[in-house]
Amino acid sequence: MMMTTRWLLQCLLVLSGVLVPLSAQDEDDKTVRVFIFAGQSNMVGSDSKVKDIARFPPFVGVGEPQAKVRYSYCIGREDKKRSEGWTELQPVNNTVGPELSFARDVTNAIKAPIAIIKIAAGGTTIGADWNPDEPSGFKLYPIALETVRTSLAALDKKRIRWRLEGFMWHQGENDMFNDEYRQNYGANLKNFIASWRRDLKVPKLPFYIGELCTKTVWGMDLRPRMYEISVGQRAVTETDPLAQFVATSHVGVEVGGGAGLHYHYGTLGQLEHGVNYADAYLRSIGKLPESPRPLKKWPYKRGRKIDLYVLAGHRNMEGERAFVQELSTLKGKRPMLKDKQGIAYRYNVGGAAKQSADWEPLGPAGLYDTFGPEVSFGHALQKAGHKDFAIAKFTHSGSQIIDWTEAGSVAKSRNLYPKFLAFVKESVASLKKKGHRVNLKGIYYHVGENDMSWHPFRKGAPERLASVIEQLRQDLKMPKLAWVVSQQKPTDHDGLAKVDVVAEIEELLKADQHAIHVKAFDLPAQEKQLVLDTAGVVALGELLAEVAARK
Description:
Blueprint: H1 5-16, H2 19-28, E1 32-39, H3 41-44, E2 66-75, E3 81-82, E4 87-89, H4 98-109, E5 114-120, H5 140-157, E6 162-170, H6 179-183, H7 185-199, E7 207-210, H8 218-221, H9 223-237, E8 243-246, H10 266-284, E9 305-313, H11 315-318, H12 324-327, E10 340-349, E11 354-355, E12 360-362, H13 374-383, E13 389-395, H14 401-404, H15 417-433, E14 437-446, H16 455-476, E15 483-488, H17 501-510, E16 515-520, H18 534-550
Parallel strand pairs: 1-5, 1-6, 2-5, 6-7, 7-8, 9-13, 9-14, 10-13, 14-15, 15-16
Antiparallel strand pairs: 2-3, 2-4, 10-11, 10-12
Helix pairs in contact: 4-10, 7-9, 13-18, 16-17
């Protein structure tokens, strides 16, 4: 009789004394990993639409039912949507929650089945609704606890092995509006976590605490309040080894309304929100997939002078809505998909949400299958005959210009200037260490899009931009450092149009003999104001390359 491969393997393992660990692993891979998702509106998925998923290529299909993922939920305040037991994972009430992309990525990375229990309701606070000791308002803590216990009991009844694997929490916006809740957010969150671990009898239950999104309009007009909530979150995640802070300030945000800004992630942001939780969890268990992009060979001869271009900015310099899947659909742009081994590229994007360990080949390397203007910029320069140049990019799409100034704001953790300065210095030093002379050709900065859509920031944009330019030149000891500042058409509606920010920035840069103002007003038509799509980002890079070629 022929022996099966598995039987033979087991025989060998018996002889080596390791059959028990293999069996234990087999059994563990059958144990259902249960995750709890809880919070307020940005955990619900407010202002998202299932039909819009198709607009974002990396996530196409995520809205379809995921039959292998168990799902139990209680969503909403007065009018709650309940699963009434376990069902298959799918959108509820036509909204997109982070659990959809989370489940896709986690099930692709681990063998074990997963289950998700979600309890979320918009406009709720940890100071009242989610308070474990004295719940008030919508009394969500006891509702959530009962939902979790009932869901787990249903698994027990079917003799399904399970273990609680993680608790994903995104909440805090409404605590901003109550002085007592805001000032005590850290203490309340600490008590919230301790209560769940106690009541579920899982003292080592990991928690993943989602950052409030600073790209929203609240990230500007409620900056001090949001910062105070983040201080409370950090106080917990920095002292609790089983609580992890999950950055979300760089994810997409719904674009709509007169000013173009919103306070909800919307469809794209929710999908990316879920990826952030999946990455955090998979990283914690050593299962996060890696996609290394090494330079096969250093592309420059030792001793050669290297022209270094530094690209910097916010949403559109990061490439929030420019997807690699769409590059092949643009006429003549397909070659940009391929990494250019002849151009060295390093980056720090999304406020360090993703950064290169070393120089990589220039190519699409952004978050969530995105890319920025650097790809078409480098492609166009090379095509024009330029050689021996490198590109370094520093962006944070959840920032505003005030974050780039040395003074910063009351939200000190959002201050980017020291990191930006260090990034530029490191880029130059790294090339010198490899034996090159470095010619820092300039800073190519795309003006903050969100700043243009809120009156106080729009009014202060020129002064803040001037501050960044002056300070960087001073700290780099390069008084003639070139700045190329690109600006798209700002939003135009009642009130904002009275501040002619284009004319003011143009006047500022015209008075600076080492600065150039690039009006990026003829980019391809965009579906949404503020945010450039794939064609727009490619065109922006090509426009900047035209300027670079003339310098």
